[in-house]
Design brief:
There is one protein chain. The protein starts with a helix and ends in a 13-residue tail after the last helix. Helix 4 runs antiparallel to helix 8 (about 165-175), helix 7 runs antiparallel to helix 13 (about 255-270) and helix 15 runs antiparallel to helix 16 (about 305-335). The chain has 18 helices and no strands. It is about 80% helix and about 0% strand. It is mainly α. It has one domain: MFS general substrate transporter like domains (Growth Hormone, Chain: A, Up-down Bundle). It is a multi-pass membrane protein. It comes from Pseudohalioglobus sediminis.
């Protein structure tokens, strides 16, 4: 059992790499336009993807907790493989809607379950003195691997364009099968069930326990979830702003994939060294840095021009890598194993649900007010939001530290 679980860790890293290795993403818009879709139709496909994930996120996380994380990852990877294969014959608007719908269900099944399985595996190995890098470090590495995969995919997309867009689709269909194959080698990690959990008789009781955990349990859990939602929402916004910004700054289209790769690798490196940075700076200074970096990046993009403005985007990516690694580790460490995937899915649901409503407003602002006004608007919105989540989170961590046998800082190594 221990040997199989040790293989779990490397397998999840590989699965995360191939899940993040989506060569189709940096060229998705020109691909769909090549099949005759308008920009309005392109954005409708993305809206369907976000809506599908929003509807399936929490049920899929709950299924992963009840059905098993391995089974959820296996089913999600199978659906993703079908979706990527469908690109080989996709040609119409309806074909691409079907592709996004399949991927939405697939990604919602994998999302949260992979983090929960990795965390459960590390906890079991540590408790049984069977090695392992530690849950916090493994989560940071997984986030770093996924970000690095996205960066490598950006470079690969630019190179494949030397041949044709069809070659990008072909490579995506082939690599999209890899997570399904890897999921077959995963092993379900034993999860200790609390005495209260063994007495639960219905799904309603489970829902009550989850809500009690988030709203009335450890205060750090609730405020960490809020922090993930705020910083995750900003990351989604800038994801759609970047390419338009690069175009307005006169960056050649051929460079988009390379910039995309550099941004993704920056997230990867920031996540990889987040734990060491927390030990060096302390959690309060690190939280301040995580909040200031994206605001400085947005202001630099708003008032900068050309490549200087593009470079300011790296500040946002550094904050993204640090916040993802530290906040997700802090959340998962404080959530019981039987509900870990569900809570991860609830946090993701919050981000996607808000984006479904506010995403079109972002596009309207870009079309009617321009890039600079939109970036300054984002600063005006997220400056108070970050203060509203980071200040209470800092206080709750300090209060938790004052309790006997408390773990200092955000992560266990802090």
């Amino acid at each position: 059992m221990n040997r199989s679980l040790q293989h779990n860790i490397k397998t999840i890293y590989l699965l995360g790499f191939f899940t993040g290795f989506m060569v189709i993403v940096p060229v998705f818009v020109p691909l769909l336009q090549g099949h005759g879709l308008s920009m309005s139709q392109v954005l409708q496909t993305q809206a369907l993807f976000a809506l599908t994930i929003a509807l399936c996120e929490v049920p899929s996380g709950y299924l992963a907790d009840l059905w098993g994380r391995r089974n959820a990852i296996l089913a999600g990877s199978a659906l993703n493989a079908v979706g990527f294969l469908s690109l080989l014959w996709a040609d119409t608007f309806v074909d691409f809607l079907l592709y996004e719908f399949i991927l939405g269900i697939g990604f919602s099944l994998v999302s949260g379950a992979d983090l929960a399985l990795l965390y459960d595996t590390e906890v079991y190995l540590q408790e049984n003195e069977s090695g392992g890098a530690g849950a916090g470090r493994s989560l940071s590495r997984l986030i770093a691997v996924e970000a690095a995969a996205s960066g490598i995919a950006g470079i690969a997309a630019s190179l494949l364009l030397m041949w044709s867009l069809d070659s990008v689709v072909l490579v995506q269909a082939f690599t999209g099968l890899a997570p399904l194959v890897l999921a077959l080698f995963l092993c379900e990690a034993p999860r200790p069930r609390s005495a209260e959990m063994t007495q639960v008789k219905s799904h309603g009781d489970n829902a009550r326990r989850i809500l009690e955990l988030l709203l009335f349990g450890k205060p750090v859990v609730l405020w960490t979830a809020f922090a993930i939602a705020v910083f995750g929402l900003l990351a989604v916004y800038v994801f759609w702003v970047y390419q338009k910004y690069w175009e307005l700054q006169g960056v050649p289209l051929a460079w988009f994939g390379y910039i995309w790769a550099a941004f993704a690798l920056t997230v990867s490196m920031a996540a990889r060294f987040s734990e060491a940075l927390e030990r060096w700076l302390g959690y309060r200074r690190l939280l301040l840095l995580i909040g200031l970096l994206p605001l400085c990046g947005l202001l630099g993009m708003a008032f900068g021009s050309g490549w200087w403005g593009v470079l300011c985007g790296f500040a946002i990516q550094i904050s993204r890598g640090l916040s993802m690694s530290l906040f997700y580790e802090a959340l998962n460490r404080r959530v019981p194993g039987e509900f870990r995937a569900t809570v991860n899915s609830l946090v993701s649901l919050g981000v996607r649900a808000i984006f479904i409503v506010t995403g079109p407003l972002l596009g309207l602002a870009l079309d009617s007010r321009g890039m600079q006004w939109t970036l300054l608007w984002l600063v005006a919105i997220f400056l108070p939001l970050m203060g509203l989540v980071l200040i209470p989170l800092t206080r709750r961590i300090r209060s938790e530290q004052a309790q006997p046998a408390a773990t200092p800082g955000i992560s266990p190594a802090a």
